[in-house]
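User: Let's play a game. I give you a shape written as tokens, and you guess the letters that built it. Ready? Here's round one.
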């Protein structure tokens, strides 16, 4: 079997109704996985795109502990922590709500979902894969997005911290740092002609990324091909961070 096949595996993708999460769910389905498409809104559309082996799960990280009980009674091999939000405001005006909401979804939910997933994998003595979705703002400071930057720096740190504890249990913990990808998350930037041009001029590849650019990397990090990749934060950014 190909080292890039996910045949026989079950993958759970958070925020699978749209954007990067939807593309990851579809790519993992195409690679042979049974995919649990999880979201706070219906993921039926994603399950239909996958076709064969898919199901949907209601999961709203308004409660960051929402996934605490979902791994105990079934074998899930791959967890993709993709759900994320962003709030834009001057740091001097930034509200506690915009801080807490972003940290809860992007960081607290990611940690406690990973904890529940890893506990179940360790109890089964089964290998497993965690793929976190980080950001360029895991490395850079950004402008007017302080809670997002703090959360994504946290995602990169947790990727390494959890790798250090769980690699010995056969659980690979890695992250993808997407560059500028055309999704709802970046619609405001693409609609601003000046920001759009400035972004494009800095990307060596000369284009926005597509969700599928991230999805194919996620398949790699979920597949046997990456079994000796631990604690990596892989930039998929058209070369942005190389500039
Ligand atoms: P998106 O289209 O806005 O997708 C975000 C996903 O997270 C949606 O499915 C959204 O559900 C879900 N979500 C938000 N709040 C949630 C909650 N409380 N509970 C459960 N799910 C929730 O944006 P995207 O670009 O695909 O973002 C996916 C991930 O990539 C995020 O972690 C983001 O930070 C990261 N990222 C994106 C870029 C980029 O350029 N696009 C770059 C770096 C990192 P709803 O549809 O219901 O809101």
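Assistant: Ready! My guess for every position:
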């Amino acid at each position: 079997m190909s080292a890039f096949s996910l045949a026989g595996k079950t993958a759970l993708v958070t925020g699978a109704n749209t954007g990067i999460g939807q593309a990851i769910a579809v790519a993992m389905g195409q690679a042979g996985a049974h995919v649990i498409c999880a979201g706070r809104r219906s993921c039926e559309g994603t399950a239909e795109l996958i076709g064969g082996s898919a199901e949907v799960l209601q999961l709203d990280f308004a409660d960051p502990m929402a996934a605490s009980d979902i791994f105990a009674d079934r074998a899930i091999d791959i967890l993709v922590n993709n759900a994320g939000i962003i709030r834009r405001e001057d740091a001097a005006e930034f509200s506690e709500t915009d801080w807490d909401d972003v940290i809860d979804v992007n960081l607290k939910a990611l940690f406690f979902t990973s904890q529940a997933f890893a506990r179940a994998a360790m109890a089964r003595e089964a290998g497993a894969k965690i793929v976190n979705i980080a950001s360029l703002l895991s490395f850079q400071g950004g402008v007017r997005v302080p809670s997002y930057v703090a959360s994504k720096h946290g995602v990169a740190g947790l990727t390494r911290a959890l790798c250090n504890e769980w690699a010995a249990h056969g659980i690979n913990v890695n992250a993808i740092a997407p560059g500028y990808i055309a999704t709802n998350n970046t619609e405001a930037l693409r609609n601003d002609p000046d920001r759009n041009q400035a972004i494009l001029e800095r990307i060596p590849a000369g284009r926005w990324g597509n969700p599928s650019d991230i999805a194919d990397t996620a398949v790699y990090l979920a597949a046997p091909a990456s079994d000796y990749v631990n604690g990596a934060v892989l930039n998929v950014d058209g070369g942005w961070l190389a500039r």
